[in-house]
User: Fold this.
Amino acid sequence: MQLTPNISLEELTATSTGLANAPTRRERAALLALATHILQPLRDAVGKPVYITSAFRSAAVNRAVGGVPGSQHRSGQAADIHVDGMTSMALARRIVALGLPFDQLIEEFGQWVHVSYGAQHRRQQLTAVRRNGSTRYLDGVG
Assistant:
């Protein structure tokens, strides 16, 4: 099912865990909002596919991938993304520069960008780094 011209429900619910990952009506509505307000405008702006490595996660999928229980992935409000030819930091900075109404944006470990859309548009910007075996979140992207 296509949610926007370039984003499908299937790619927002794909998982390699083999576990069931079917969103409820409310979660599908959140995924539609994420695709409409963040992912499709980003795709239009960069002129390239936005690859989604993780978006909606059922409780079982979230546990299997080590996600935190309150993750916005659980409610269909978040996606981990990358764009070929762009570093994750360049992608994060582009999202900020576009003025997209994100809730949270995290450049993660120089590998991907976590972006969420929800009722709030906090525009919180963080950079995740590993230090001494643990994850630290630094304010800002860059």
User: Anything to note?
Assistant: The two ends are 36 Å apart (CA to CA). The longest strand covers residues 124-131. Helices lie at 9-13, 25-46, 59-64, 88-98. The mean pLDDT is 97.
